[in-house]
Batch of 3 targets.
Target 1
Amino acid sequence: MKRFSASGFRIVFLAVYFVLMVFPLYWIVITSLKPQKEIFTYPIRYWPDHLTWQNYANIIKISKFQIYIGNSLLVSLTAALIVSAIAVLSAYVLARHHFRGHGQIMLGFFLTQMLPGFVSLGPLYMMMTKMDLINTRLSLILMYTVGLIPFSTILLKGFFERIPKSLEEAAMIDGCSRLSALIRVILPVMLNGITATFIFAFVQNWNELFMAVMFIDNESLKTLPVAMNSFVMKFDIDWGSMSAGTVLFVIPTVVLFAVAQRFIVDGLTQGAVKG
């Protein structure tokens, strides 16, 4: 009886948790399919009387949605590629070599993850202004790259430490240099971990709003999160268009998170080999 009660409580708890997590997504999708007049009807309708794609047509045809997506893709992909490349090299050094200041570097990386982003906003804005990078995509790429290198390095360092040194030592005995052993032997084993790091960096860049709002004011350079924020007007909120944009905005991140989960698990499994 006790076992049944515990199992029943667990099922009820998970069911309630699932509903609480899924219902907001359901409500966003349904709102995006409602005509404007049905969004504010009372009592609340959990299924619209008339489904419409007008909200999606509005943001695609009337707004510069394609431009915003292009800006987000360019900034997110470029920054994620740079972060992954730098993090691979820095994580390899920190995982394979213990030198003076090693602990201080790792402590510095961890401390950067504890500080809120707005703390450095003033100095960064002044720096970008002096470099004449305000209202440029390059400013976002630089900020995203710098912000994600510490965490990406910490993440990849864990992957490197799970790969036995004997693999690269055997490659070096066969005539490979250290760099050649890294590229030919270690990186193929690390592929899942590197992919997971890239996807994590891309999703973080794709969702970022704070820096993009502060550094970009030009309409043709805005990223998708900034464009979504523009649906919040002074005296009104275009809930239909915002919900439709949110659905389109979330789809890539949902897919990438699903892919990232598999890569992270595979990477940890393959790296957990004792030499």
Target 2
Amino acid sequence: MIKPTTPEPTIHSLFEPQTGTWQYVVADPSTHDAVIIDSVLDYDPSTQKITTSTADSILRLITSHSYNVTHILETHAHADHLTAASYLAARLAQTTQGGTRPPIGIGRRITQVQSAFGRKYEVPEDERAATVFDTLFDDDETFAIGGLTARVVHLPGHTPDHIGYVIGDNVFCGDSIFPPDIGTARCDFPGGDAASLYASAQKLLAMPGHVRIFTGHDYPPASRGAPVPWTSVSEHRERNVHLAGEVGVREFVERRTERDSGLAAPRLLHQSLQVNVRAGRLPGRSADGVRLLRLPVRVEGAEW
């Protein structure tokens, strides 16, 4: 008897150039059920304006393919862009029969991140409770996307809450591994750990060589040109600048730590974390009816 092959999804890769973010719509071609992974809200720090043109392009794609979105997924609490998860959930609830709102899912360790950054930015407790997310996934938990099965894999290192999603012969790894000429993600955020990232990367590279690793970001050098959403496991084993060859954990940690020490903070670090621990919900209004985010101020020289 010939063993049936695993059903493969239809994958739409959408690149957001301002933050270098890859967003994904992953669908079961037989049922048209679909999920959205790591969506982006547009944010202009010079005007403090949030707009939805990037998220609206996802909605247009969903409409054009008659997809039924069953989940909106996050790989982690991003520190470089604002998630559009809550906006998309609200808009999809307006357009689906019965007003069904697709659940927003993330790994269960998001509570650690909510606690740490909620206190730092004084986010009200009801706006950073675990319940702002609809689903908190356990490690190795599975769920259905139509006739497809998705599996959750814990990939800590970049952040402690970080997870990936294995769907068919594809893994959506968020900010764990980048394209081979860039390497891996930074580990200098609170809760980040280079040794943990090395273990997560080895978990990915232990998958069969034909499996495609879809990344959360790309920052293509001029020598390469266009951003790429995925690279096979076998290509990463051969060419990833941080992982190829016989790189051990000690060497990786030394390289990653040295690299991270020279990196500037993400441009939207503070805005992103305050929105993303809320699952993309906007801050509540002040007494004057204004929505506010908290930003740190650095004083050079003596304070007064």
Target 3
Amino acid sequence: MMIGLEDVYKVVVAMTPLYVATILGYGSVKWWHIFNPEQCNAINQFVCYFTLPLFTFEFAASVNPFKVNYLFIAADAISKFIIVVVLAFWAKCSSKGSYCWSITSFSLSTLTNSLVVGVPLLKAMYGQLGVDLVVQSSIFQAIIWLTILLFVLEFQRARSDIVTSLITAMNSSSNSSSIIDSTHVVHVEPTKDGEGMNNEIVMNSKPSFLHVMKIVWLKLALNPNSYASIIGIAWAFVSNRWHIEMPSIMEGSILIMSKAGTGTAMFSMGIFMALQEKFIACGPSLTAFGMVLKFFAGPAAMAIGAITVGLHGDVLRVAIIQAALPQSITSFIYAKEYGLHANVLSTAVIFGMIAALPILIGYYAILGFLH
């Protein structure tokens, strides 16, 4: 399969409008000063709570769950399992490894902007096959992998709360006392010498798993994108099982907002870029680290998973290219909310969008020579 200039042109045509929307968002704040930070926040909320959920619902509802390529989904799961094993080994055995960086590295190497960037890009490259596969990937990412990420972040926050309480206990007076919060109880008993700094700290209970899960499900309940994926795939099951068409009045109401999903998401991304003090917020070293994970480690793991389950032809090519799509914006939102390397994720989103086009065209050209 030879890649011609016409094929590359189609990809450029599909991607250029995304960059135009991003530049307009950036310029509206940085150059023309049309929006202030408060108005920018309102625009971001509009995208988060209206256009993106309806955009996600539209694509989820269009999937035929009875024709899902489960080998493709299995390859995706295997690739993520490979990443998890490598990161767990790194965190356990390397002096530079850590639980927190493992979470961030997982986000960088596996979570992609599959709908906003992936759909127009893969459609230009591989037609409807590319669209179908990238939508399937995005649905599983929203329902499974982002949910797991949210749970892990909540677990990390609970563990951090314990450490904070222990430090507080160590710095308290030498009298016997208890520290109680919503997740655990820490009991402090004085030593033989009565010195507060030498107190023995006894944990009478571990963080409540049910409490952590309650917080996780509360976060999910407040995330309309989770609803959009689940309701959309539920409708897809019903409509394809009993051949029920969506009422035109409902479809029109959804489309009028969902069609704005791509443009407003990229416009919002441009606004976010303009609000940053530095274009590269985390420095060149961490930026390079993030780009290696995003554009090379993720696709390499996906290639292993795809070959393991026997994918071939255009399905194999789509699997590898969709793994190299730019960083998921949702992963940055979570990182910012939980205070875990948000500067690294923001840089990955911004720089990844800029670097994505030439890198993905390169993948497209190289994979085109594979039979």
